[in-house]
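Example for reference:
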Amino acid sequence: MSLITTRTAGVFVIAVTPFDETGALDRASLERVTDFYFEKGADGLTILGMMGEAPKLTQAESREVAAAAIRRAGGKPVVVGVSAPGLAAIGELSKAVMDLGAAGVMVAPPMGLTTNEQVESYFAQVVEVLGPDVPLVLQDFPLSTKVPISTGSLGRILEAHDSIVMVKHEDWPGLAKISALRAAEAAGRRRVSILCGNGGVFLPEEVARGADGAMTGFGFPEMLAEVVQRAAAGDMDRAQDIFDAYLPLVRYEQQPGAGLAVRKYVLAKRGAIASAAQRRPGAALPPAAVAEVERMLARQEAKLAALAEPA
């Protein structure tokens, strides 16, 4: 399997972890949803992310999910989230998944880092634990981690560690940070890949600012793929038109505590997974929310039909 690099681009879907109604891993659905993501245009996958319910898995289950997804991907790149409170756990899981054929690993800073110096020291320690040959994605997600990383601090981290080949950018608001990173590269700093998260809420603008694509989840990964392709090609109006058709559902997924339930409901409805179940703690969508999602899906279908290009 190829490794991610500073030139990696496209869409790496944050994969859900399928469970059955008892909370057990659904291994058949894991294979099915992996196929689904690639069939719908994903260039790669990121597994065991925050929306993959990674904290609810045991270490053994994490390795099992990684092994199954990497095997099913058939050589296409799979990045594995390995964030953990301690560096020993990060190092152990990283070695296991790289030995299985992962394309790289992703680490977010743990809560409790309050200064630029602490953040910079933390990633220096992560790189030391992983070694120089493991491609690393730095996840910049202060809304979740509560650890803001200034543009200057991020730049110093990138300058110090060549093995950090990608930034998963999901600061919010964060468009100016993308511009600043690219401006620094134009002035001579080494290039890194930038893939963006936050459910794709700002995806057209992020690509226009210089992002290489998306690393996020959504029940319609084909939207992410088409928007990135068209925006990267300079067809911003068409990219925005496609994005706008899906925007109500993208927005609805942003509800704290409900977003994963929405995403799994849509994926189950589309046949990508057998059940929308989450492992506890986690709840299914209530009937009122199901009705709202169904209405959005119907309107989305109508908008896409109106946008369909002539054969």
Notes: The domain at 10-235 is CATH 3.20.20.70 (TIM Barrel). The first strand starts at residue 10 and ends at 14. The chain has one domain: 10-235.
